From TrEMBL:
One of its GO terms (molecular function) is phosphatase activity. GO terms for cellular component: cytoplasm. InterPro entries: His_Pase_superF_clade-1 (IPR013078), His_PPase_superfam (IPR029033), PGM_Phosphatase (IPR050275). This is Broad specificity phosphatase PhoE. It comes from the Bacteria. Gene3D superfamilies: Phosphoglycerate mutase-like. Coiled coil: none annotated. It comes from Branchiibius hedensis.
Length: 213
């Protein structure tokens, strides 16, 4: 019997409307910008050309709004999976991007002890574990076809690093995971074959002005 090929696409959500530069993390109420919605349409159109039979989204609004155009095109339901949510971060609600000096406050010092875990939020190993479990279940659900999981930059990147056998601690500036990008994990049966990457909305990235988390 020939083993089936299954692909699980890990999609980062589109641009978020965030004029205040808030590190929003898992906070509710942060939605896609107009540009982010355009990214969702463009990436959704790219994925709709593939053999996608199963859809998954993080419970956060920006992820659900990113998968919506694809779901409407394919007439497929979306499974909400808490395991693909944004990474936990103790700096949630701050504006560290615009005011990094906030981290100099003594109350934050204990959070900056170990950047390899990291000590300010959810350990990378825990992110990898939950993302692997979500990918496994999506692969089972779409066996012989393709699945799409819309998540967030750090969980997608950690999943990729883990699947490729790389160390999990890294320089965030070097992540290859732009807005509305697609990281594709291909399996033959139960075995990982390859990890690919595409940017279906690359032509829109130079317009990004808002939040990118």
């Amino acid at each position: 019997m020939t083993e089936q090929y299954t692909v699980v696409h890990l999609v980062r959500h589109g641009e978020v409307y965030n004029p205040g530069g808030v590190l929003y993390g898992r906070m509710p109420g942060f939605h896609l910008s107009d540009l982010g919605r355009a990214m969702a349409v463009q990436t959704g159109a790219w994925l709709a050309q593939r053999d996608v039979t199963y859809l998954v989204s993080s419970p956060l609004e920006r992820a659900q709004e990113t998968i919506e155009p694809l779901a409407e095109t394919l007439h497929l339901p979306v499974t909400i999976d808490e395991r693909v949510i944004e990474a936990g971060n103790d700096f949630e609600g701050l504006t560290v991007g615009k005011k990094p000096t906030q981290l100099l406050r003594p109350r934050f010092w204990p959070k900056l002890i170990n950047p390899t875990k990291p000590s300010w939020g959810e350990p990378y190993s825990e992110i990898a574990t939950r993302m692997h479990a979500a990918v496994h279940d999506a692969r089972e659900a779409a066996q012989g076809h393709e699945a799409v999981i819309v998540s967030h930059q750090l969980p997608v990147w950690i999943a990729r690093e883990s699947f490729e056998g790389h160390r999990l601690w890294h320089d965030p500036r070097k992540r290859q995971c732009t807005l509305a990008s697609v990281t594709s994990v291909t399996f033959r049966g139960d075995f990982l074959i390859s990890v690919g990457y595409a940017e279906p909305s690359a032509d829109l990235l130079d317009q990004v002005v808002g939040g990118t988390g």
